[in-house]
Amino acid sequence: MNDRYTYYWYNYFEKEKTVWFQWNQILNDEAKPWNKFADSLFAFIDTHSVERFVIDLRNNNGGNGEYVYTLIRKLYRNDKINQKGKLFIITGRKTFSGAGIAITLLEKHTPAIFAGEPSGTSPNFIGEEFEFELPYSHLAGNVSNMEHKYANAVDYRSWIAPTIYDNPSFERFYERRGCRLGRHIGELSFEIIFVIQCFPLLIVFSKYNCYE
After folding, report:
1. d(CA 168, CA 91)
2. Model confidence at 192, in pLDDT bands (50, 70, 90)?
3. Higher pLDDT residue, 204 or 67?
4. What is the domain range of residue 58?
5. Structurally, how many domains does the chain consist of?
6. What's the CA angle centered on 10, arms 24 and 110, to 5 degrees?
7. What predicted TM-score, i.e. pTM, was given to this entire model?
8. Which of 45, 48, 54, 44 is nearest to 22 (CA)?
9. Residue 164, beta-bridge partner list
10. Over the stretch 93-136, which tens digit does the pLDDT of each residue have?
11. pLDDT digit string (tens) for 2-28?
12. For residue range 59-97, what is the model confidence (pLDDT) as tens digits?
């Protein structure tokens, strides 16, 4: 999925019965307002043969976290795709700030399966910012000054780790090939879904230990 600059867009892969939602910035595009886009996205899902919904947040470094709640509400109410084995979230080291809010709430309120790399932010983090100027050098800077807690208060993870890890490589970067999940989403085996459903604690412990 090569368009990293448009704030949000989606494609439908008819053969795989998959909607791929690319969310690059959590901002409002005045030419394509976020709320109208979200309405059209879920209207498409409701009126087409869709068995999988992929939300790609690999390149999303945040924006306005308030826009996240529109997506969460629509997903939470959508029984068609808000199911284990039908909802996939792709994360990466650039998934940060407002996108961190999104994946924390998606992990908390949906049965989504995470794929890709560990996120670039922890579930609870310090965000927002204010500008300052040093008194003698007059160098300008900014610093985060607001605590965001969207997970459990004692959740001290450094990131949200994927269940399906996709190790990046220079070869795929050079050849402009994206996440392997993108090519094989329609072939995810029943065995993977079965293990995730039946042994969630085993996966939770193992996947976080992998990145220490």
Report:
1. 12
2. very low
3. 67
4. 8-122+159-209
5. 1
6. 75
7. 0.79
8. 54
9. 115
10. 999 898 999 999 999 999 999 988 888 887 887 777 789 999 99
11. 688 899 999 999 988 999 999 999 999
12. 999 888 899 999 999 999 999 999 988 999 999 999 989
Q: What distance in Å separates the CA atoms of residue 190 and residue 172, rounded to the nearest whole number?
A: 27
How long is the chain? 212
Cβ-in-10-Å burial (0-12, 13-18, 19+) of 70 comes to middle
Closest CA to 55 of 179, 157, 149: 179
How far apart are alpha carbons 183 and 201 in whole angstroms? 28
196 falls within a domain: yes
Q: Is residue 129 part of a domain?
A: no
Distance (Å, rounded) from C-alpha 62 to C-alpha 204? 25
Cβ(43)–Cβ(79) under 8 Å?
no
CATH of the domain at 204: 3.90.226.10
Sign of CA dihedral 90, 93, 98, 102: positive
Is residue 153 in a domain? no
**Distance (Å) of CA 178 to CA 47, 91, 171, 183, 184:** 28, 12, 11, 9, 12
What is the chain's mean pLDDT, rounded?
Answer: 81
- Domain for residue 51, yes or no? yes
Separation CA 172–CA 58 (nearest Å) = 15
CA 144 vs CA 16, 38, 97, 120: distances in Å: 42, 29, 11, 16
- Alpha-carbon distance 1 to 141, whole Å? 34
Helix (H) or strand (E) holding 175: none
